[in-house]
Specification:
92 residues; mainly alpha; 4 helices; 0% strand
């Protein structure tokens, strides 16, 4: 009895495709492209900053403590590179 009700309700829920209006599609693509470029610049800067900190820490003999910040930058790079795939996975 309840399975028929569930099937009826589940089939009546609309599932629209995610399409942007034509006048916004180019603008949104430009904004997302700029955001991705900014994330890439921040990741490269983060790796360079971590490398500089690691070089100074090596001179002081504290190199092991610097790997945590490099791991954090690595996670940020992975999230930035896989952002669209990650969001697409969550939305579907």
């Amino acid at each position: 009895m309840f399975t028929n009700l569930y099937v009826t309700v589940a089939t009546s829920i609309p599932n629209p495709s995610p399409e942007a209006p034509p006048e916004l599609e180019g603008k949104v693509s430009t904004i997302l492209g700029l955001g991705m470029w900014l994330v890439m610049v921040a990741c490269v800067a983060g790796v360079l900053i971590c490398a500089g900190k690691m070089a100074l820490a090596y001179r002081r003999g504290e190199l092991a403590e610097s790997f945590g910040s490099l791991a954090g930058v690595g996670v940020a790079c992975i999230l930035g590179a896989s952002a669209s795939g990650f969001v697409n996975f969550l939305m579907l």
